[in-house]
Amino acid sequence: MQIWVDADACPGVIKEILFRAAERRQIAMVLVANQMLRHPPSQWIRAVQVPGGFDVADNHIVASSSAGDLVITADIPLAAAVIEIGAYALNPRGELYSQENIRQLLDMRNFMDTLRSSGVETGGPAAFSQADRQSFANQLDRFLTRNSP
Description:
Elements: E1 2-6, H1 12-25, E2 28-33, E3 45-49, H2 56-64, E4 70-72, H3 76-84, E5 88-90, E6 96-97, H4 102-117, H5 130-147
Parallel strand pairs: 1-2, 1-4, 2-3, 4-5
Antiparallel strand pairs: 5-6
Helix pairs in contact: 1-5, 3-4
C-alpha cells in the first residue's frame, strides 16, 4: 500500500500529519503536484512534479495508484476514479469516500457546478478548522490500523 497525495490543494497541516504517519508506519507516500513541493528528507516520502494543466496531477495519481492504495484528495471526481480501481480515498476534512457514498457526492458536486455555471452564488467550503484536522488524523489512524501491514 502507498499513500498518494493530491498535493496542490492539500492543507499544510494535513501534509504534516501525513509526513509523521508515513515515517511512523514506514509507508511510502507520494506527493503529486504541478509545482515543486518541500518535504522532510525521508526514504518513505517523495514528491512528483507533473506539468501544469487541467487534471494532470489527478490523471497521474489514477494511472500510478493501485488497488488498496490510499489517495488523499478533496477532488470528488478523482476520488471516484480511484475507488473504481479499488483504491481508497480520504478527504483532508476526514471524510472517507466509499462505493456507498461516492455517487451521491459526485451528483451533488455536479449539481453545484451547474448552479455556479448558471450564475448562482453557492459560496465555498467552510474554513479549515482544528476539528477538521482532528477528524482527518483520527480517520487516517483508523484506516492505517485496519489496512497497513
